[in-house]
Write a structure and sequence with these properties.
This protein is an all-beta fold and about 120 residues long. The chain has no helices and 11 strands. The strands form 2 sheets. Strands 2, 4, 5, 6, 9, 10 and 11 form a 7-stranded mixed beta sheet that branches. The chain has a 4-stranded antiparallel beta sheet with strand order 1-3-8-7, with no helix packed on it. Strand 7 and strand 8 form a beta hairpin.
Length: about 120
């Protein structure tokens, strides 16, 4: 089993920045595809960013390209989501997710096996 715990959410003004972190435990972090999803009230959960275990395959939601950066530190069993130039429409609960056994980064929630509890990101206008 893999446990994922997110942190780093908070309240920021539009144009501000936050850095989310997700720490994995229970199994080796290596060889897991890791990703970030977000879900606003009344909305479907949507893919934000994902990275393969080796870091050579990265995908982003189109609307966050150039603003968000996903990275991972396998030595710390941690992935990060650096979010810059935040917009009110980025407001959501952000979830960390993991998938074993593949190199391609899934972009749907059904493509992931493990989930964190979520961390709230609120961007005021």
């Amino acid at each position: 089993q893999v446990q994922l715990v997110e942190s780093g959410g908070g309240l920021v003004q539009a144009g501000g920045s936050l850095r989310l972190a997700c720490v994995a435990s229970g199994r080796t972090f290596s060889r897991y595809v890791m990703g970030w999803f977000r879900q606003a009230p009344g909305k479907e959960r949507e893919f934000v960013a994902g990275v393969s275990w080796s870091g050579d395959n990265i995908k982003y939601l189109d609307s966050v390209k150039g603003r968000f950066t996903i990275s991972r530190d396998n030595g710390k069993n941690t992935i990060y989501l650096q979010m810059n130039s935040l917009k009110p429409e980025d407001t959501a609960v952000y979830y960390c997710a993991a998938r074993s056994g593949m190199s391609v980064v899934p972009t749907t929630s059904t493509g992931y096996d493990y989930w964190g509890q979520g961390t709230q990101v609120t961007v005021s206008s």
